[in-house]
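User: quick one
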Amino acid sequence: MNSNQIMTRTGMALIPGFLASVWVFGLGILLNVAAALLAALVLEMAYHQVRRRPQTQASLSSGLLAAVLLALCLPPMLPFGLVVFGVAFALIFGKFVYGGLGQNLFNPAMVGYGGLILSSPLLMTQWLPESGVTPSTLDLFRIKIGLQSLDGYTGATALDLLRNRQGMTLSEYWQLAEPVFNDQILISLGYLLGGIYLIQARIISFKLPLAMLIGLLVPSLFLYDAGSSSSLGSPWLHGLAGATMIGAFFIITDPVSSPNTTQGLWIYGLLVGGLTFLIRGFGAYPDGLAFAVLLSNAAAPLIDRVVQLRSERAQNR
Amino acid sequence: MSNARTLALDGVWRNNPALVQLLGLCPLLAVSQTLVTSLTLGLITLAVLVGANTLISLLKRTLVDTVRLPLQILVIATMVSAADLLMQTYFFELYQRIGLFIALIVTNCTILGRAELFARRNPIMASMADGFWMGLGFLWAITLLGGVREVIGRGTLFDGMAQLLGPSGDAWRIEVHQSPILIMMLAPGAFLALGCLIALKNCLDGYYESRKTNRLLEHPTPRESNPNH
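Assistant: Done. Structure below.
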């Protein structure tokens, strides 16, 4: 199987999660994905024109896949300008500056997400509300091209509510967050389904997702604190809320920016999961997956090196 | 090419302390949020560099070789303390914004680097010139970086000029656009902007180099086309 087929199948595996997102959040997600795909297509073609390199299928499809992954992490009412900015940031600073496909140190989609959340933290955390008031299609278009403010339509995510619950116990929090969280479960199950397909088709190994889920869920089990007001959230919440599932199966499994050694994969997955939990619990941003992935990407070459050195030393002994 | 021209070209472009030697990155990245702070830090670094180079060149026979690094640092620290006190006196508002980094000029490797590599082996005038051109190289690089970051990250240019020029400085302020990209104000933006600036310089160098070779290929000088002549 060549890398082009791998990326096509990964794209297909995203379909259940994508459909669930569109079902829950409406047309906005579809528009985000379409805008991101278009922007990535233009950028990839422009890059190969500028650098005078032949356009390969694999490079194009990896760029498109990164754009889709980024778009699926964006809130539905983010203006088009920011979606395009995110994709441009992802591809230019996450891929092109390193010399294109296979050379990048960081996961391009998460580079774009990091750039966006640092640039407009407010717009990036405005999701559709639990109240069910959705904008009409016309209003949605007006918001997306920046003619209308999105006040009155937005709401927080389950992880946002968890951060800002101000001394509520978890059972009080659940009454508030349950409708939002139920939507999240549907989307997460969609990604889980796609991920299981990928593992079964031997496109990704089960090690990375499993290690990441262990790294995330075991600490949350210990710090669950029986749902008191200082609880950091139950494993159930952490496993299904936010970007956990899309991250575990689609983002950290990017073969370019993750380690190459088997032991390295376990360490890397645990590191992503643990950092995600730490940033969710104590960091400045509600969902820490993007930063956890970027930090672990930076550590991946070191992890590989340490694992190789240790195995060489063990052989020499 | 004369010695003075080599010094100028080296300091400002070919061996630019910020873009080629990559020295003094801490102030370069930390203070370049706006044009005014960058300009101030660049000017003070320039002054310190000229002063330190001159002093060290003057003292080059007195500086004991085995402990020359601490002695050079002491000379530089003296210059920096003087600049620090002067700035507190005349630009106190600005001092409150970037005062920490003024004291940190001592640790700017450009200055110790020039003292060690140039001033301690060269005559006074040449050392002064070297300090001036290297300082100018740092000044234009940090000012450009600050300008780019301010325009993208804040949508303004020359904001806060009054702190440098007095009340008349407010007239300098330009509102460029209304949609600032916050990341340029933060640490990642500093690295991104510096990386792009270095890439741009290398790109220009490559373009100039290729044009020079092309010109040689198209119009070879008589001697080159006719080596036996």
